[in-house]
Amino acid sequence: MTTAPSGSTDPARIALIGTHGFGASHLRNLARLEKEGVARLVGVVDVTEPPAELQAIHHRSLGELLDAVSAGDRPEIVIIATPIDTHVPLATEALAAGLDVYLEKPPVPALEELQQLEDAARAAGCSVQVGFQARGGAGVDLLADEVANGALGQVDTVQVYGAWQRDRAYYRRSAWAGRRRLNGRRVADGVATNPLAHSVHAGLVIAGIHEVSDIRSVTTELRRAHDIEADDTTFLRIDPVGDGPAVVCALTTAAPTQSPPWIEAVGTSGTHRLFYTDDVSRRTQSAAAGAAVELTHQRLDLLENLIAHVRDRSVGLLSSLESTGAFSAVLEAIQSAPDPAPIPAEAVDWQGEGDAAHPVVEDIEETLRRSLAEGRPFSELGVSWADEEAVQVWTPPAP
Questions:
Q1: Are strands 12-17 and 39-45 parallel, antiparallel or unpaired?
Q2: Which site among 34, 188, 265, 271 is 20 to 30 Å from 143 CA-CA?
Q3: β-strands 233-240, 246-252: how paired?
Q4: What is the rounded distance in angstroms from the CA atom of residue 142 to the CA atom of residue 120?
Q5: What is the span of the domain harbouring residue 79?
Q6: Would you say 372 and 248 are in contact if contact means Cβ atoms under 8 Å apart?
Q7: Do the strands 128-130 and 100-103 form a parallel or antiparallel pair, or are they unpaired?
Q8: Residues whose CB is less than 8 angstroms from the CB of residue 89 and which lie 6 or more positions away in sequence, other chains included
Q9: CA–CA separation, 129 vs 305, rounded Å?
């Protein structure tokens, strides 16, 4: 095995598994990093044909890639941007080969597999960075610090709002899109565990809920407007062990328009709302403290952070596998609940034609906001399309 020495300034050698879907975003980022001399793409793996310009470095498996490349081109880091149900076997294979891993979110489709993957990383002496992109923004850590040190007074809730719009094409993009299971394995492609997973994970970080043991219970209400198996309109309430703030999430991909998602810490002497995709936030203190303050936050690229960590292990990861325990517990709660029931047709307005058509749930944005303000599931708000039978409460397994 050939690895760069600690402190090396040579471009990091990167392999990418999965060149389509979100893999295309990684290719664009790698092109930027290659231009800057930070990284070098030495091979791609895909079961389908990659873009034409990658044919010369295309392989059908990671094992085939490792057998084919020279010692000087052996990857140091593998990016895995593949269907959710393939994450664990692919990451385990990469770790066993002595490679550090950038793993797309969610890292695992079942809570029990998180420990398996952590054990594999520990045995290999390698690291796993998880692609929760919101963790690259400094705003998440700022809000977490403010909650922890009482800068906003006593914070009882961290609210997570996501009103996105997805069309039929989005859920037809692959065999696993919008699925809870595929070929006997979990997929977990629901609104809270994939498109808006960044929001949920960041909300947990801000509230100081990091481990499975930090969670007392998770309340879920899962519904769907799209013709899919998974949830697209979801309420979550994560109550902590102890007296810290709860995390309340109201999320949908059936909104009339797409707006920036936000996370807000609500305290007795102020609030702080972070628009994490834009890296801006608005902090409002009590009236005596003056006007609201608008803040802009620095963003670090998660792959660059992983490269820096590989070059110098004293550099901490922004989104380590070990930091995803609480999120994986929330995913387990969602996957343990009954399959989401469809929202009645009379409460859904389909707009557009063909694959571009998208559903809009009746009064969905107002319902999301009310649910957050009151900390209650949709069905407790008197919403016509919600059903209290969909509300489930999950508690973590005994250690």
A1: parallel
A2: 188
A3: antiparallel
A4: 32
A5: 12-133
A6: yes
A7: parallel
A8: none
A9: 9
Beta partners for residue 160, in sequence order = 249, 263
Looking at the structure of the chain, the number of domains it has is 2
Q: Cα torsion at 134, 390, 114, 13 (round to 10°)?
A: -40
Any residues with CB less than 8 A from the CB of 111 and at least 6 apart, and which? 212, 328, 329, 331, 332, 397
CA distances from 303 to 26, 260, 317, 319, 399 (A): 9, 23, 10, 10, 33
Q: Is the pTM of this model over 0.90?
A: yes
Residue 17: C-alpha distances to residues 46, 77, 96, 188, 304 (Å) = 6, 11, 16, 20, 18
Give yes or no for residue 399 having a pLDDT over 90.
Answer: no
Structure confidence at residue 2 as a pLDDT band (50, 70, 90): very low
Looking at this protein, which amino acid is placed at residue 176? W
Identify the domain boundary among 133, 162, 186. 133
pLDDT at position 398 is 83
Q: What is the CATH number of the domain that holds 273?
A: 3.30.360.10
Domain presence at residue 309 = yes
Domain boundary among 118, 133, 148: 133
pLDDT digits (tens, 9 = 90+) for 327-378: 999 999 999 999 999 999 999 999 999 999 999 999 999 999 999 999 999 9
104 to 144, 258, 303, 305, 325: CA distances (angstroms): 23, 23, 11, 15, 15
CA distance 77 to 98: 9
* Paired strand residues for 348: 361
Q: How far apart are CA 136 and CA 155, in angstroms?
A: 24
Look at residue 1 in the predicted model and tell me its pLDDT.
43
| Confidence label for 9 from pLDDT (cuts 50, 70 and 90) | confident
Q: Are residues 37 and 88 in the same domain?
A: yes
Segment 348-352 long-range contacts (CB within 8 Å, at least 24 positions apart): 348/225, 348/254, 348/385, 351/256, 352/167
Closest alpha carbon to 155 in 240, 70, 85, 228: 240
**What tokens does 373 get?**
């303000």
